[in-house]
Amino acid sequence: MRLLVSALEPSANLHLKNILDTFSKSVEICGIFDSSLGSPLYPSSDFGVMGLFSVIPKILKAKRAISKMVELVESCDRVLLIDSPAFNLPLAKAIKKRFPNNKIIYYILPKIWAWNSKRKRDIEQYIDVQISIFPFEKKYYPNSLYFGNPLYREDIPFPNERRYIAFLPGSRKSEILHLMPLFREIAKRREEPKILVVPPNIDISIYGDISEFEIWRDTQEALVNSKFAYICSGTATLEASIIGTPFVLVYRTNPIEYWIGKRVVQIPYIGLANIIFYEMNIGKEFHREYIQNFDIGKLVDEVERVDSKEFLENSRILRELLKGDIREVGKVIEG
Predict the structure, then answer these.
(1) Cα radius of gyration (the chain)
(2) pLDDT tier at 318, thresholds 50, 70, 90
(3) How many Cα atoms occupy the beta-carbon half-sphere of 10 within 13 Å?
(4) Where are the alpha helices (DSSP H) in the chain?
(5) How many CA atoms lie within 13 Å of 97's alpha carbon, on the beta-carbon side?
(6) Is residue 21 included in any domain, yes or no?
(7) Do both 313 and 178 map to the same domain?
(8) Is residue 335 a part of any domain in this protein?
């Protein structure tokens, strides 16, 4: 089977790798994905952006990429789109216009429960198979399938002896540049050994002065060995929540982008575990969130403020909600 793939984000490529490992037969992939997984038309690193101003320079490149991706469809058996709706929904529309009978599978659906609910219409019109990753999404996507969350695994241990404090400033340049000055200041005020998690294939030079930190590349390993973490919004917050490592979400962006975001986001949280608890009516907050403007002293003191036992209990609840088997996703894609 030849599979056209569009996986732009680092997290999407992590999930793609796990899906590929489940296939029962030989599958050749082409399209946009991380170079470690094969020979892409474009490496996903070419498209790793976040925020209004970082997206603008990529628009023309994205249009060219969509055109070339559509050309590849003729030689492929089906299409797998992962997350990134700003790119993948226009791609799906272009594919269906030229190849209306080609099967398109969308994994990690647009977060219409947070913002831009109009995308549901495009999903219903252009996507043949919808696969969600959150237990509450059925009420937003009635035709979707749910096989658990890809970050959940039976063999993930709960942490025991831990001595590090981990800092995870994200995987995008804009996130890193906004958070590293703050993280350096926090690190200077804590006596514990500090870990800075630098995702694979990220140029370490963009982090600036890293003398306060040990550099680790594996997010899960870093979190399992840490008693506390400071994490940018995104997938890593859910990983820490599943593992049971107490943390606070810390997010800062361009002031104009923040102003716009406040007016379009429809939910009270940005942390994924908090959103799951909110949507599932669990009745409590999973972790604290510090967004845009905050007191650095309070952030430094969060290590002592957190209730580790309550956090671990929340983690057990979350694991039950996210249970599933990613092999079922592979079966659906293989057909």
Answers:
(1) 20
(2) very high
(3) 17
(4) 10-20, 52-55, 59-73, 85-98, 119-126, 173-189, 219-224, 235-243, 255-264, 272-279, 296-305, 308-322, 326-334
(5) 11
(6) yes
(7) yes
(8) no
Confidence band (pLDDT; 50, 70, 90) for 53? very low
Confidence band of 56 (pLDDT split at 50, 70, 90): low
Which of 146, 176, 204 terminates a domain? The answer is: 146
Q: In the prediction, which pLDDT does 293 show? A: 85
Is 26 found in the same domain as 138? yes
Do 93 and 139 lie in one domain? The reply is: yes
Assessment of whether the complete model's pTM goes beyond 0.90: no
83 domain-assigned: yes
Lowest mean pLDDT of 19-33, 246-260, 320-334, name the range: 246-260
Of the candidates 90, 119, 146, which is a domain's last residue?
A: 146
DSSP 24: S
294-300 own/partner pairs: CB under 8 Å, 24+ apart: 294/250, 296/182, 296/185, 296/186, 296/189, 299/182, 299/186, 299/230, 299/248, 299/250, 300/186, 300/189, 300/190
Residue-number span of the structural domain to which 242 is assigned = 164-322
Q: Tell me: do 136 and 6 sit in the same domain.
A: yes
pLDDT of residue 57: 59
Contact 72, 30 (CB under 8 A): yes
In which residue are the tokens 């994994």 written?
Answer: 107
* pLDDT category of residue 51 using cuts at 50, 70 and 90: very low
- Interstrand relation of 2-7 and 28-33 (parallel, antiparallel or unpaired): parallel
Q: Same structural domain for residues 230 and 295?
A: yes
How many domains does the chain fold into?
2
CB 75 within 8 A of CB 49: no
CA–CA dist 109, 117 (Å, integer): 12
